[in-house]
Write a structure and sequence with these properties.
Layout lengths: L2 H12 L4 H8 L3 H10 L2 H11 L2 H5 L1 H7 L1
Helix pairs in contact: 2-3
Length: 68
């Protein structure tokens, strides 16, 4: 699973429309999100999801089934 797709799921989860809004919602700088995307940093996104307590919602089977 690539970083951009995961970020799209997180944006959907938080009902935001751009990376700036997402950054505010999850408490990181927008530059972090841009770096995650450009470097395909899936592990960094996973770590942040664990910190936010949304790992299962983003990476779990039930969420994947709902969004496909």
């Amino acid at each position: 699973m690539e970083a951009e797709r995961i970020l799209d799921k997180i944006m959907w989860y938080f009902s935001v429309v751009n990376y700036s809004e997402l950054a505010k919602k999850i408490g990181v700088a927008q530059q972090n999100i841009s770096k995650w995307k450009s470097r395909n940093s899936v592990n960094a996104i996973k770590v942040k999801c664990r910190e936010l307590g949304i790992y299962n919602e983003i990476f779990g089977d039930s969420f994947n089934t709902l969004t496909q």
